[in-house]
Write a structure and sequence with these properties.
- Helix content is 34%, strand content 19%.
- It has a domain at 10-233 and 359-449: Alpha/Beta hydrolase fold, catalytic domain (Rossmann fold).
- The chain has helices spanning 3-17, 50-61, 67-71, 117-120, 124-130, 157-173, 193-204, 224-231, 236-239, 241-244, 270-282, 290-298, 301-306, 328-335, 343-351, 358-363, 436-449, and strands at residues 24-42, 72-91, 98-103, 114-115, 122-123, 134-138, 185-191, 211-215, 234-235, 322-324, 356-357, 377-382, 418-423.
- It is built from 17 helices and 13 strands.
- It is globular, with a radius of gyration of 23 Å.
- Helix 2 (50-61) packs antiparallel against helix 8 and helix 6 (157-173) packs across helix 7.
- With 454 residues, the protein is of the alpha/beta class.
- Bound molecules: 2-acetamido-2-deoxy-beta-D-glucopyranose (NAG) (8 copies).
Length: 454
Amino acid sequence: MTPLFTISLLLLATTAAATTAASRLCSNITIPVQISSRQGLFKKFPILSNFETQAFSQDFTRRAHNLTQELLEDYRTLEGDFNISARYCRPEVAASSTIQLLTHGIGFDKTYWDLSYNNWNYSYVEVATENGYSTLAIDRLGIGNSSHGDPLNTIQAQAEVEALNEVTTKLRNGQVPGIDRIFNRVIHVGHSFGSIQSYWLSALYPNNTDGLVLTGFSPRGSFLATTVAAWNLHNAFLNQPFRFGFQASLPYRLSLNEENNPLRPPPPSLSYQLGLIEKALKRDGYSFTSEQLWELVASTEIGNIVTGFNDTKAPLKYPPGYLTTSDLTASQYVFLNPGFYDLGLAVLSEQTKQPVTTGELLTLGGFPSFSSFAGPVFVFDGDRDQPFCGGDCYAPTGTSSENIAAESKSLFPAQGVFGAYLQPNTGHGINFHYNATAGYHVIQRWLVEHGLRP
Ligand SMILES: *[C@@H]1O[C@H](CO)[C@@H](O)[C@H](O)[C@H]1NC(C)=O
Ligand SMILES: *[C@@H]1O[C@H](CO)[C@@H](O)[C@H](O)[C@H]1NC(C)=O
Ligand SMILES: *[C@@H]1O[C@H](CO)[C@@H](O)[C@H](O)[C@H]1NC(C)=O
Ligand SMILES: *[C@@H]1O[C@H](CO)[C@@H](O)[C@H](O)[C@H]1NC(C)=O
Ligand SMILES: *[C@@H]1O[C@H](CO)[C@@H](O)[C@H](O)[C@H]1NC(C)=O
Ligand SMILES: *[C@@H]1O[C@H](CO)[C@@H](O)[C@H](O)[C@H]1NC(C)=O
Ligand SMILES: *[C@@H]1O[C@H](CO)[C@@H](O)[C@H](O)[C@H]1NC(C)=O
Ligand SMILES: *[C@@H]1O[C@H](CO)[C@@H](O)[C@H](O)[C@H]1NC(C)=O
């Protein structure tokens, strides 16, 4: 046997032994951060009803307009204390001094990286820890179990980048409560908006990152209008009232009240409507098959409205201005490649989705035009990515780059090590496609081969 062959066999044996889910230790932690963020002060606009959220989308996507510019009244420095909720995992045996800091994209939270579904078959964290890395997956500022805030003028991209930078510094200094060690190297791994923020951090604080893995990313903003239109954004508290907190709406008054809209049809009595549904379901000779009922619930907003009631859990309470995709079909357009994703997982992700704020939408395009970071950068996209590739990353780019993901190289003029990879048959929501973890192994291998071993 040649030595090389022996080594490959050994490597294979290690990988095979490490595939059980039990080989890592995880804990949930809360990280206090103090941030100072120079950001926009936007003029308020009505955003209470779903008619108004759609008007916002119309204004946002209007051709040859820049809503960010139109609403911008001033800049100000936001200063404040916030909590970042995170889940820390480390390999049970190895004590790695390199950590991957995972930042999720719009529509998700920290659980994007570590789903227990199908025996951890869709878990980035599982793959990274198997390969010897520690991970910290955060809920971005404003989202999930991290501090929430005013969706227009507090929860903006820049504030989230500052929070991410604070978390990074605390990891390096051993100041994260619940993690009793320091990390010499922090690799920033993002998905989508989380990749934009990881890139943004590298531009503002090039010293504070040792490597970037940008999944679901490219420098192109030109598909954003299609994305926002396809989402069919609704207020989170109206879309999933039980989970996102109908209470959040009580202090507000929907603008479509009778006073403002005398011609509005009278409000439906909920018990009358429910009674009609019950009658229809019971009517002789008339019934849905369970498949039809499943389709009716899972593929329409009915599924959202009924999801999430749990009398042991407090709703998340997102105020108006926290928006979300209307239903799973809207999410499919942006995130999923039909035929190649796990439908059960997609339904679960719709039930556990997270919102986007108006402030995030108005500021996510404000990232610096280049980063002086000179370390390793790996861009990893689904080849059918919609929001960053327009549905086909291989389509002619009109540039010298071989595909749209590879165009990201132009953001890093310092010309460090750069790689781009397109995961086959995969949409923007990489994690929900059958073959996701095979792609995650590609990422770990790339890191090891480019100076970022655990
Ligand atoms: C920790 O957070 C995960 C979500 O990231 C959740 O599923 C789990 O229940 C939490 N565990 C505890 C003990 O709070
Ligand atoms: C829109 O306006 C904002 C604020 O002035 C600016 O930062 C941004 O670059 C503009 N976007 C485009 C695409 O011109
Ligand atoms: C952060 O969470 C802790 C509880 O873990 C709480 O006491 C504190 O007030 C929170 N801080 C902020 C700024 O919300
Ligand atoms: C992961 O999914 C694949 C394909 O669906 C399946 O063959 C495999 O058994 C699954 N693995 C685990 C650990 O469930
Ligand atoms: C959410 O945060 C609170 C404190 O801010 C903490 O007590 C709780 O464990 C966290 N839950 C999860 C799931 O992270
Ligand atoms: C951070 O980077 C700057 C250049 O951008 C350099 O001058 C400085 O010495 C670096 N600081 C540390 C602590 O590495
Ligand atoms: C409600 O949440 C708890 C955890 O907080 C969970 O154990 C339980 O399964 C949930 N119930 C439903 C109906 O989802
Ligand atoms: C699964 O992903 C791996 C890594 O990108 C790739 O080599 C393989 O061809 C993919 N398999 C399929 C069936 O797409």
